[in-house]
Amino acid sequence: MKTSLAVAILLSIVSLSCQNGQRKSVQFAIRFTPEVESQAQDGRLLLLLSNNDKAEPRFQINDGLSTQLVFGVDVEGMQPGQDIIIDEKAFGFPKRTLSEIPAGKYFVQALINRYETFNLSTGHTIKVPPDKGEGQQWHSKPGNLYSKPMQLEIDPSKNATHAIVMDQQIPAIAEPEDTKYVKHIKIQSKLLSEFWGKPMYLGAHVLLPEGFEEHPNAKYPLMIYHGHFPSDFGGFRTTPPDPNMDTTDYSARFGIYGYNKIQQQEAYNFYQQWVSKNFPRFLVIEIQHATPYYDDSYAVNSANMGPYGDAIMKELVPEIESRFRGIGEGWARFTYGGSTGGWEALAVQMFYPDDFNGCFAACPDPIDFRSFCLVDIYKDKNAYFYDSDFKTLPRPAHRNYLGQIQNTMQETNHYELALGTKTRSGQQWDIWEAVFSPQGDDGYPKRIFNKETGEIDKSVAEYWRENYDLRYILERDWATLGPKLVGKIHIYCGDMDNYYLNNAVYQMEEFLKKTDTPFYKGEVDYGDRAEHCWNGDHENPNQISRLRYNTMYLPKILKRISESAPKGADLTSWRY
Question: Is 460 a member of any domain?
Answer without folding.
Answer: yes
